[in-house]
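Hi R.,

As promised on Friday, here is the backbone we talked about, encoded as structure tokens. Could you run it through your design pipeline when you get a chance and send me back a sequence?
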């Protein structure tokens, strides 16, 4: 399975995606307030985390991100990004 464009219009899928984005924003916002992540546009910071997670999962599912290829996994890459963001916060 490779993540990509939705194959059909679905109101319930749209609501689920919006809900997932909202949850991510509610996690990023307090991290910004606590200075664990850089301040700034919370929606944009959440989009950055989402994009990295999505891309890492897509690469892993396609077999392009394994312990031998890239020496990483999706969760590890997201944690690396968060560590970098914390360092500049």
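Update: got your reply. Pasting your designed sequence below so it's all in one thread:
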């Amino acid at each position: 399975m490779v993540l990509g464009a939705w194959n059909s219009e679905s109101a319930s899928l749209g609501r689920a995606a919006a809900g997932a984005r909202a949850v991510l924003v509610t996690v990023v916002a307090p991290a910004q307030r606590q200075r664990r992540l850089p301040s700034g546009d919370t929606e944009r910071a959440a989009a950055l985390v989402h994009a990295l997670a999505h891309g890492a999962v897509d690469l892993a599912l396609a077999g392009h991100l394994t312990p031998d290829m890239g020496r990483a996994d999706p969760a590890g890459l997201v944690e690396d990004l968060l560590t970098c963001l914390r360092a500049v916060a």
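One thing I noticed while checking it: The chain is about 65% helix and 0% strand.

Thanks again,
M.
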